[in-house]
What does this fold into?
Amino acid sequence: MEAKKRGKKVYHLNIGQPDIPTPAAFMRGVREAKVEVLDYAPSPGIPEAVEAFVRYYAECGLQVAKDEILITVGGSEGITFALTIACDPGDQVLVPEPFYPNYLGYARLTNVEIVPITTSRDDGFHLPPRQEIEALIGSRTKAILFSHPGNPTGVVYTPRELEMLVAIALKHDLFVISDEVYREFVYDGEHTGLLTFPEVRDRAILVDSISKRLSACGARVGALVSHNKDVMAAAIKCATIRLSAPTFEQLGLVAFMADPNHRRAVAEMIGEYRARRDLFCQELHRIPGITFRVPEGAFYVMMGLPVEDSEAFVCWMLTDYPGPETVMLAPGAGFYVTPGLGTDEARAAYVLKTADLRRACAVLADGLEMFNKTMARTVVGRG
It folds into this structure.
């Protein structure tokens, strides 16, 4: 990055890369793994790792059998498998927007079209009324995909919203794919998971990952979970083609779940993120022109900026903003497929220490003021 080459310190609010250390028990499991030959792991996952997920879901109040879990190469592979199973080429899947941009890549890999369910910053990105969603369903619609809590919005759907999606799925014979990577990251209220709805037992597909809750994004260990035996049989076929998920990282998960303090480690991490959210939102509220609803979960804020083109502002902060520090955000338009939406928005990830978040907000406030003055002078000059 040119800004760093010029010696600038960049506060990276643009990517959800946690800075909290990966739990020691996980790292110890990797370092002390008794592996003499690093051969292929079983395609469905190392049995002990599958059992670790079984215990984890039991702690979440979910009864899941071992043959209802497939270890995946991160949540990304889980979503790709889910789309492959639920849809034929050319089919459509409904996704609330703004959404995680990689969903678009997974859809393209599987030749599936995303049909957006547009949500609003004014409503905290909660779902629109049922009739608006059902109006989007056509003969090629085969599934509903959503992240919960949401990336990039931080929205946590209410039980009533999930009941609505379940009712829609039942009425229109759709699969429901729930990306619950941020399950523990809920600061207001409680998380209601898809698998708590027995009426969609045959059509629910849960996608999971240890990337965020264990601060282990590089581990690339996730899971696809379903009570539907046909779904699991198809998932195993997909897994067989790619052979296996990472061995050492699965063993790290096994060691982490065997640690009697594993739940406390996650709870302490969530407490830290809650403090970061509170401070970050407090500082953002002080910046003139920024609009947002305090996120209920995950570790993102999708905010409106007092600029016409957030991407131009993000680039300007990296190329033209003076001084030894700058801030990098993720431009909002990249989280939408509907043309024209998100052009004045940006996503920020509060994954830095509180002192850095406070300083980043000060730099952001100064940058917005300077950018708008620069744009005003440019307009006057052209006139």
User: Anything to note?
Assistant: The mean pLDDT is 96.
